[in-house]
From TrEMBL:
Segments forming domain EngA-type G: 3-181
Span of the entire protein shown here: 2 to 182 of 455
Function noted in UniProt: GTPase that plays an essential role in the late steps of ribosome biogenesis.
Organism: Longilinea arvoryzae
Organism taxonomic ancestry: Bacteria, Bacillati, Chloroflexota, Anaerolineae, Anaerolineales
Family from the record: Belongs to the TRAFAC class TrmE-Era-EngA-EngB-Septin-like GTPase superfamily. EngA (Der) GTPase family.
Name of the protein this chain belongs to: GTPase Der
Amino acid sequence: RKPVVALVGRPNVGKSTFFNRLVGEPLAIVDDTPGTTRDRLFAQGEWLNTVFDLIDTGGIDPSKTKQGEPLSVGSADFIDQIRTQAQIAIQDADVVLFIVDAMSGVTPADQEVAEILRRNQKVIDGKPYPPVLLVVNKADSDRYRNMVPQFYELGMGDPYPISALHGTGTGDMLDALLAAF
Ligand code: GDP
Ligand code: MG
């Protein structure tokens, strides 16, 4: 079966921009099960003749309550929604792309996402599963590419700088993605 790749990250890091750049038009919005927010965008991606399914879990927007009110970062509801997003990604995905933002640097919400991802990974053959690839988006210029090493502090291994806006850096990142399947 095709590998499944899930995008995870706090709001506004560029998940949707990245998703749309990689796949063109999103194919479908699926599975809005009452009780659990499982709004996800599915599409097919391809790199070097390898086809994979891409999920944007960002339909779960941890920046707003169900009533549409803004949530403060670190509030119980915010963490709860990030947790739901990460759990869905980890249940469904063969690889998780954890997206962060070079322009803002590491934020408490990123630390929260990293923590939740780590806690939800299983261990298979002595390795964390699914693997998480750290993608530093908005690395549009040298000024922001210089910010990239600070993301090592998230403890998610090598950060891959990209610009979803300009389409740069995605080659190396996608090579690493294929290697993780
Ligand atoms: P999401 O909430 O994670 O899905 O983020 P979006 O894809 O909606 O993007 C949030 C904002 O960041 C939008 O204004 C995008 O245009 C902007 N953005 C996304 N990717 C980039 C990038 O690579 N560089 C810059 N400068 N802005 C970006
Ligand atoms: Mg989005």
